[in-house]
Amino acid sequence: xxxxxxxxxxxxxxxxxxxxxxxxxxxxxxxxxxxxxxxxxxxxxxxxxxxxxxxxxxxxxxxxxxxxxxxxxxxxxxxxxxxxxxxxxxxxxxxxxxxxxxxxxxxxxxxxxxxxxxxxxxxxxxxxxxxxxxxxxxxxxxxxxxxxxxxxxxxxxxxxxxxxxxxxxxxxxxxxxxxxxxxxxxxxxxx
Length: 191
Fold this sequence. Notes:
Helix content: over 70%
Largest sheet: none
Order of helices and strands: HHHHHH
Strand content: under 5%
Number of domains: 1
Number of helices: 6
Distance between the termini: 21 Å
Number of strands: 0
Radius of gyration: 22 Å
């Protein structure tokens, strides 16, 4: 990868990361509001469930349990989403100094590191975009879910929380891989 092509790819990846940080933040806010609204509708259902409790005895208990699960999952999702947003912002904020190095890459070490850096930033941007889409989908689903559908929605939300947890671990692994690549490239350049 030449310094010029690396710089172009890095600029594109950086733009994606910067935009994705904003999109993910907005999607998280909309998602959280939709879930809180869903919980409010479900609590209202429980207060006014006279007809339902006589027809389906287990429904109020299932809804109550789902509300507790969803509330806990919302609390679990927040730190993970905020961690990804922070990683996106940090990556975007550090790009100016990295970009100047990439643009002046002349050693094999810097060329290898620039390729790894582009891959890291691009992967982080794609991860943020993927999570944004998942949050938007979950917000729409929350808006369309009736109280009786809360147990199923809680299961979907649990899977989303698992994906967010995995994404946080993946992004930490990518950062460690980049650090390893930088060390290996530096060691090879010193030989």
